[in-house]
Design a protein that fits this description.
Oligomer: single chain
CATH class of the largest domain: Alpha Beta
GO molecular function: RNA binding; rRNA methyltransferase activity
Distance between the termini: 63 Å
Bound molecules: S-adenosylmethionine
EC number: 2.1.1.176
CATH architecture of the largest domain: 3-Layer(aba) Sandwich
Keywords: Cytoplasm, Methyltransferase, RNA-binding, rRNA processing, S-adenosyl-L-methionine, Transferase
CATH superfamily of the largest domain: Vaccinia Virus protein VP39
Number of helices: 21
Number of strands: 13
Catalytic activity: cytidine(967) in 16S rRNA + S-adenosyl-L-methionine = 5-methylcytidine(967) in 16S rRNA + S-adenosyl-L-homocysteine + H(+)
Largest sheet: 9 strands, mixed
Structural class: alpha/beta
CATH topology of the largest domain: Rossmann fold
Function: Specifically methylates the cytosine at position 967 (m5C967) of 16S rRNA.
Shape: globular
């Protein structure tokens, strides 16, 4: 694709992600498919879109030396400046003059002469005199916020919960390049065979510590691998693979997955059950239930019964003590997955966290009665907010004294993980900086002590 067209596509994508609050990874994949981009253009588009998004606040600060932040300019012009400065500051392989030329071409096509001159003037100034210096920010909280492009309220929350050093490590880890991980479908292939095939295809791989089904992909985009197209692999973060491990489902069991779409964990559970028994998988949104069915089909599984249902109304559907295992992989703020979905950090608010705490606790309280006396109950979220994790469990245990945290799960973890994983009184809290996984919380509860 011609470079100006590609830059224009990138600009439109960025404006859409910001305006429609779209999920960046879904929109990026859609555009890549629609425009049949070659691997080089695909890589550049992905890098500029993610880079501009995840550094948005830093880029605005850099620009503030030449553009008054309160100046009224069209969204697309501001975004064009951001993506150009991103390329000038962070990408070595594209010369500044080429970046400026492309930006001015786009401004000429989309705007009037005034805009073209404005874009040209700002970018030439940056080329000559550099961007605004971060050292001008003296307050450490403000500086961390701008330097790592996380809203101040969020950085402050993490400092209050975990201290400055950990908050800083979280912010920096959210900007680091993350390697992919996959889970094998064990009824179709062994981990050893899958690793050998992937290596033959040119991928650099490593077995995961988190699950015997997991493989870390250190180099290469596994979506293009033969194994993936054959339904022998699923993309899944290693932290989230721990969920089915912790749930310990067995063949023949009745399992409830109350918040199931798109089915990443339901399919893992079904695989561990050797596709024998039943996984009752529900999600509030009917449209999303189709995704569970699709995933089950792709992986050649059949024991997942997926229907739309509010987890807070499942007692209307099932009798008490119906399930051997229950998973509540709760709706959450997603503040542990900022690395792969950077828009989350700009869109969530403290009110969202409070609202979600209530929903999470309501779901747990409601489905708890559905567990058999000797059953196991796992709660998980992809966030690092204590209010959505430890505090939910703490309140649940207070309201449901028959339950306790099942500490055995810790002893079941591989030794290498035990020494560095974050264990609290209420479960495991993984941070993105520890193993390069998503930030994730999970715990196992049982009846009795
Ligand atoms: C973290 S996601 C689940 C991810 C899924 N377990 C997986 O591994 O692919 C949380 C899900 O909860 C669903 N959800 C939100 N509120 C719900 C409710 N009241 N009852 C059931 N599902 C709900 C959301 O639609 C979302 O798909």
């Amino acid at each position: 694709m011609k470079t100006t067209r590609l830059r224009n596509l990138i600009l439109e994508l960025l404006v859409r992600i910001e305006k429609d609050h779209g999920f960046s990874h879904l929109l990026i994949n859609q555009e890549i498919k629609k425009n049949e981009l070659n691997p080089k253009d695909e890589a550049l588009l992905t890098q500029i879109v993610y880079g501009t998004l995840e550094r948005k606040m830093t880029l605005d600060y850099y620009l503030s030396k030449y553009v008054d932040p309160n100046k009224k300019i069209d969204d697309w012009v501001r975004m064009l400046l951001r993506m150009s400065v991103y390329q000038m500051v962070y990408l070595d392989k594209i010369p500044d003059h080429a970046v400026i030329h492309e930006a001015v071409e786009i401004a000429k096509k989309k705007g009037h002469r005034g805009i073209q001159g404005f874009v040209n003037g700002v970018l030439r100034n940056i080329q000559r005199n550099g961007v605004r210096d971060l050292a001008e920010i003296k307050d450490p909280l403000k500086r961390l916020s701008v330097e790592t492009s996380h809203p101040e309220w969020l950085v402050n929350r993490w400092i209050q919960q975990y201290g400055f050093q950990t908050a800083e490590a979280i912010c920096r880890a959210n900007l680091k390049e993350k390697s992919m991980s996959v889970r094998i479908q064990p009824l179709k292939i062994s981990r050893e065979a899958a690793m050998a095939e992937l290596e033959q295809e040119g991928f650099t791989v490593k077995p995961s510590l988190f699950s015997k089904q997991g493989i870390q992909i250190e180099k290469g985009n596994v979506l293009s691998s033969k194994l993936f197209t054959q339904g022998k692999l699923t993309i899944q973060d290693e932290s989230s693979m721990l969920v089915a491990e912790m749930l310990k489902p067995e063949p023949g069991m009745d399992v409830l997955d109350s918040c199931s779409a798109p089915g990443g964990k339901a399919t893992h559970i079904a695989e561990k059950m050797l596709n024998e028994g039943i996984v009752y998988a529900h999600d509030l949104h009917k449209k999303k239930v189709k995704l569970i069915e699709e995933k089950q089909r792709t992986l050649g599984l059949s024991i997942i019964h997926a229907t739309a249902h509010d987890a807070r109304k499942l007692k209307e559907k099932y009798a008490e003590a119906s399930f051997d295992r229950i998973l509540v992989d709760a709706p959450c703020s997603g503040l542990g997955v900022i690395n792969s979905k950077p828009e989350i950090k700009y869109e969530k608010s403290e009110q969202d966290i409070e609202r979600l705490h209530t929903i999470q606790l309501d779901i747990l309280n409601h489905v708890a009665d559905l567990l058999k006396d000797d059953g196991l109950f796992v709660y998980s979220t992809c966030t690092i907010e204590k209010m959505e994790n430890e505090q939910v469990i703490k309140s649940f245990l207070k309201e449901n004294p028959a339950f306790t945290v099942d500490g055995d799960f810790f002893k079941e973890l591989p030794e290498e993980l035990q020494s560095s994983i974050g264990v609290t009184e209420y479960g495991l809290q993984l941070f993105p900086q520890t193993f390069g996984t998503d930030g994730f919380f999970l715990t196992r509860l049982k009846k009795g002590t």
